[in-house]
DNA sequence: ATTGTCGATGTAATCGGTTACATGCATTGC
DNA sequence: GCAATGCATGTAACCGATTACATCGACAAT
């Protein structure tokens, strides 16, 4: 060994074992085709040198990166990190690693820096897009690896998707309220340019239309605690005060609940609230929150699995819709007699 | 162009521009040393072919990966994802990408698969370790890239660290309770093998000792809502019921609060509660939570910056301790006269 | 006129593996 | 005895960039 500080290369192992580099490579990647004697000698040499393959060199030769890039709007948001955990799980099982890019902070503008420079086959073997607000044109370059959209989706971007059944979820939530006798229902939405908000609004309409109803009020929030809290003021200002509220996510529901309680309303006695997502804290809120369960880790896992499938089979246009379910807790109650 | 489906290589651009590959490379990486005429011709050829560099090839040649790996115990935990967001931020500014590995799910055992195979220079230019429960021996291989520990730390692993001031935080929390007149104080800890829990326990002791006091009860939780909730039962069972509780994180504080309220105790009238972390929801809890603010994104950013610094300068043993502060809300009140 | 310097560019080695193809040897069939 | 077959292994091309070194022309100094 010339320079003991340098990491050993395959050449060093080959020399020590008295075989060629090809044989060493074969022992590492496909041991069954090399003779037992040779294999043992090579394994011994590997152990003695402490050799590990240089992943970059292998990747270059094999024309693959060994990793998948997830584009998330906000990495700090637990909603997305739960999905990421599912993605990471599925990838690890395939020996792939997870790269993460926070799209809201990264610069979309310049062609050199920014998101665009990550969207190439030489950086990732595939893309999982969790941000529905991106420009579909970003993914149109020929060098762009296969894409799977998850959770949110981009209008004008074809290709495989995996989504929760947002319409059904919103419908379930509102039907639950209707079943309790509520008729004056408010809807606190996410940003309406968001595809998620749009399909939840559609679900709300589907539940109300058969009765000839519509939401008595609608407020556009931002999926944040603060915007839910702000909705409390809007609600109090309504002439015909709603008796129930459906919020597009649990954070807004919790923010709203805090805001209403601060104003002296009791949940569920004075007003019923339903959220969406079933985040962990929903069960531990002041008044445990009735909500729609959405399996986020499972959604992430499914997205990763779909990506791996599509890497092999060419791009069929697949759409996987995951079921959701209603979790009844204590934030909803029958409409009291007038 | 022989095969229009193939991504163009630097060779193709060179031919189109009528220059050598070296010149193209120089235009891309160090434009100032090539003549204006040539540069423009190359840039035109780049635009026409839609060329983008092959990152794998560049990385192999330059012996760097262009990415940093974060080891997190649980990716779905918002506590860590906020730190990750800070890390991602700092890395992006340097043109590095973020790789994430969930250490609890990955297999630590086998030498081939598992965490070990990620801890090599050919996979990441550096490591940010957020999991204090890992075996220090993992990082002792010569091929292991530079490591910075953040938030938690590993006993027996030297090297740079960035931490919140856990001792001071716990001390502040308890001193706040003492200042309100409380003397019977319970401590709900994280797992005691966790270095974080240990230093918070030390801070608690520092605050109590001058008065000759000790926690009247201590319960070991798991940093989860559920374990906080479980602590409520333990608390009620105490003969000398505490008048105040310090919880090692906000999740346990919120779980505890829910559990106590379900048992008819009022916060803060019957009992005061302090958390740690100042997670977003702390302000929107049923009773807004008094807690210790810890800037998690900033902590992540500092860790990344420290890593980048140590990549250049050799390994000085640096330890950065970030200040924390007390945020007083409504879950704490003066001890009522007996 | 000759030499030296400098800036711009080209040539080719290099990073560290994988793998198509070639080779050599032993076994088998005729 | 000789060709055919097959297994184990070696040789060298290849992945696609970067960059040390060589080259060349123009211009300045002697």
Oligomeric state as shown: homodimer
Helix-residue proportion of chain A: 25-40%
CATH homologous superfamily (4th level) name of the largest domain in chain A = Response regulator
**What proportion of the residues of chain A form beta strands (DSSP E)?**
5-15%
Number of strands of chain A: 12
The CATH topology of the largest domain in chain A is Rossmann fold
- Tell me the radius of gyration of chain A: 26 Å
- The end-to-end distance of chain A, rounded to whole angstroms, is 89 Å
User: How are the strands of the biggest sheet of chain A laid out side by side?
Assistant: 2-1-3-4-5-11
- The CATH class assignment of the largest domain in chain A is Alpha Beta
The interface involving the most residues is between: A-B, 60 and 59 residues
Question: What are the secondary-structure elements of chain A, in order, as H or E?
Answer: HHHHEHEEEEHEHEHEHEEHEE
Number of domains of chain A: 3
Sheet with the most strands, sense and barrel status of chain A: 6 strands, parallel
Low-confidence spans of chain A: pLDDT under 50, at least 5 residues?
none
Chain-averaged pLDDT of chain A: 93
The computed structural class of chain A is alpha/beta
Count, helices of chain A: 10
CATH architectural grouping of the largest domain in chain A: 3-Layer(aba) Sandwich
Gross morphology of chain A is elongated
């Amino acid at each position: 060994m010339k320079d003991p500080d340098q990491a050993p290369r395959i050449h060093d192992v080959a020399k020590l074992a008295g075989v060629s580099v090809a044989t060493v490579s074969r022992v590492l990647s496909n041991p069954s085709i090399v003779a037992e004697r040779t294999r043992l000698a090579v394994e011994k040499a590997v152990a003695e040198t402490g050799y590990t393959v240089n992943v970059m060199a292998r990747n270059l030769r094999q024309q693959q990166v060994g990793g998948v890039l997830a584009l998330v709007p906000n990495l700090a948001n637990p909603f997305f990190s739960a999905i990421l955990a599912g993605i990471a799980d599925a990838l690890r099982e395939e020996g792939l690693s997870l790269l993460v890019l926070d799209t809201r902070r990264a610069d979309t503008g310049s062609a050199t820096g920014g998101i665009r420079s990550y969207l190439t086959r030489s950086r990732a073997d595939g893309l999982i897009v969790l941000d529905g607000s991106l420009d579909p044109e970003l993914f149109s370059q020929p060098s762009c690896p296969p894409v799977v959209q998850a959770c949110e989706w981009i209008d004008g971007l074809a290709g495989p998707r995996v989504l929760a059944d947002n319409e059904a979820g919103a419908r379930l939530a509102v039907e639950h309220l209707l079943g309790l006798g509520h008729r004056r229902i408010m809807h606190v939405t996410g940003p309406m340019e968001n595809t998620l908000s749009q399909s939840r609004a559609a679900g709300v309409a589907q539940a109300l239309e058969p009765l000839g109803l519509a939401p008595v009020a609608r407020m556009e929030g931002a999926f944040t605690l603060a915007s839910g809290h702000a909705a409390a003021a809007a609600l109090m200002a309504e002439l015909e005060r709603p008796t129930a509220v459906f919020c597009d996510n649990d954070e807004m529901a919790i923010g709203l609940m805090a805001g209403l309680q601060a104003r002296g309303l009791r949940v569920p006695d004075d007003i019923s609230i339903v959220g969406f997502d079933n985040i962990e804290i929903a069960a531990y809120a002041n008044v445990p929150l009735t909500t729609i369960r959405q399996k986020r880790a499972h959604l992430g896992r499914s997205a990763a699995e779909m990506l791996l499938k599509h890497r092999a089979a060419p791009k069929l246009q697949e759409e996987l819709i995951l079921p959701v379910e209603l979790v009844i807790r204590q934030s909803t109650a029958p409409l009291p007699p007038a």
